[in-house]
Amino acid sequence: MTISRRTLGTTSPLDVSALGLGCMGMSEFYGPTDDTVEAGGIATIHRALDLGVTFLDTADMYGPFTNERLVGKALAGRRDEVQLATKFGNERGEDGSRLGINGRPEYVRSACDASLQRLGVDHLDLYYQHRVDQSVPIEETVGAMKELVVAGKVRHLGLSEASAANIRRAHAVHPITALQTEYSLFTRDLEDQILPTIRELGIGLVPYSPLGRGLLTGAITSSDTLADGDSRRTGYFPRFQGEALDANLALVERVRAIAESKGCTPGQLALAWVLAQGDDVVPIPGTKRVTHLEENVGAAAVTLTEDDLRSLGAAVPRDAVVGARYGDMSHIDS
Hints:
By secondary structure, the protein is of the alpha/beta class. The chain has one domain: TIM Barrel (Alpha-Beta Barrel). The protein contains ten helices and eleven strands. The protein has helices at 35-50, 66-74, 105-119, 138-150, 164-173, 194-201, 242-262, 266-275, 290-297, 306-315, and strands spanning 5-8, 14-17, 20-22, 55-57, 83-88, 90-92, 98-101, 124-129, 154-160, 176-182, 204-208. The protein has a seven-stranded parallel beta sheet, covered by helices on one side. Strand 1 and strand 2 (14-17) form a beta hairpin. The mean pLDDT is 93.
């Protein structure tokens, strides 16, 4: 099948595949990341490009740093086929230590140069501030990002997990093409203020974790389903813990029942729901396996009627999900 195209942003538009690929899990957080996993990640990226999924998402902090190198290796000889996005702002040391959120202008410049080197490219199609630094006025951070556009190192600017107020302030400095934030059947709080704001300003939405970090695929049936070392087994992700997980899995079963009636998988139905939220929405489900990628791509062929959307809304009421999306929400701008 052919993946259609969508446009992120109106003032500074970026044409991308309607479905992107999140590359984070190829290097960290969701289980083992050995040489075999890296090879699988590269194969997944190559398969994505062959299927028309050309919008790739990474960040310097994934690994840390190793994910950008993996993506760069996968793109050798194929750079012109992709719309490449990476992020800065969650500063980490080479040893993996977390150094905090950094939005200082001098750091923006050095982080970009380092990402370009690791990726082996001369420009980024989309460069996000990964998290808002509350100690630095966002105008200063975006001002430095704007300089990168002028220098030709970056084509378009994005924000991740920014509040409505900071989105407005940033957009006044330089057009913001896309906002990346968590959005799925399981996470809909952005519908109150964030979504109306970005639509007013002509900013596209790039939902990460559109499958609820795998919950909505139906493949997770208990915490034992997850590999040792998978961060979802920790308190960092409350929705996967104890009674919260049991309650959330009951919601997944409702999604599964609707998916069966549609002749698709629960994950495909969940992705189709995100895609149906607007032509300015481009989800980036992450995976390190070709089989999962191919299943995700199948979501593009699932057509949802108004009745389907109402049924899903009734099956998963917006406030029915149990547990915060992070155990520590202090890094989320609000």
